[in-house]
């Protein structure tokens, strides 16, 4: 049996852009991705603290150090620039793996930087 377990998250980052005319996904600053153990193309859930929206999409690598957090395509309709979001990734694990796993949580500053 495999369980879906919280792998990592970025807690309370701010949306910097919303690009409706893009093919889809969320662009995340590469440094923020690395800190949160996110992979390009990985499925993530985005929870918008401002309006309660929850969406799923995949990660695209953004420019390192830019602080970019851009919802693309249809997802752009689910948030506004400045909205505070939580971005969560999950992993399939056996019960034994899950017992020993500690998720990664990143708390970026107001510019989506990690120190």
TrEMBL record:
Q: Can you tell me which family this protein belongs to?
A: Belongs to the PanD family.
Q: Which domain of life is it from?
A: Bacteria
Sequence positions bearing Pyruvic acid (Ser): 25
Tell me the InterPro entries matching this sequence.
Asp_de-COase-like_dom_sf, Asp_decarbox
Assembly and interaction partners:
Heterooctamer of four alpha and four beta subunits.
* EC number of this enzyme: 4.1.1.11
Q: What does this protein do?
A: Catalyzes the pyruvoyl-dependent decarboxylation of aspartate to produce beta-alanine.
List the SUPFAM superfamilies: ADC-like (SSF50692)
Q: How is the cofactor bound?
A: Binds 1 pyruvoyl group covalently per subunit.
Major subcellular site:
cytoplasm
Pathway entry: Cofactor biosynthesis; (R)-pantothenate biosynthesis; beta-alanine from L-aspartate: step 1/1
- Give me the reactions it catalyses: L-aspartate + H(+) = beta-alanine + CO2
Provide the alphabetized UniProt keywords. Answer: Autocatalytic cleavage, Cytoplasm, Decarboxylase, Lyase, Pantothenate biosynthesis, Pyruvate, Schiff base, Zymogen
Swiss-Prot/TrEMBL cofactor(s): pyruvate
What name has this protein been given in UniProt?
Answer: Aspartate 1-decarboxylase
From what organism does this protein derive? Answer: Portibacter lacus
TM segment ranges = none
Q: Which GO terms describe its cellular component?
A: cytosol
